Amino acid sequence: MTVAASARWREPSILPGFGIALGVTLTALSLVVLIPLAALFLKAASAGPADIWAIATSPRTLAALRLSFLGALFAAAVNAVFGLILAWVLVRYECPGRRLIDAAVDLPFALPTAVAGIALAAIYAPNGWVGSLLAPYDIKIAYTPLGVMVALIFIGLPFVVRTVQPVLEQMQAEIEEAAALLGAGRWRTIFRVVLPPVYPALLTGFVLAFARAVGEYGSVIFIAGNVPMVSEIAPLLIVIRLEQFDYAGAAVVATLMLLIAFALILAVNLIQARARRRFGDV
Amino acid sequence: MSDVALPLAVSPASSRRAARVRGEPVAVQAVLIAISLAFLTLFLLLPLVSVFVEAGARGWAA
Question: Do the Cβ atoms of A171 and B22 come closer than 8 Å?
Answer without folding.
Answer: no
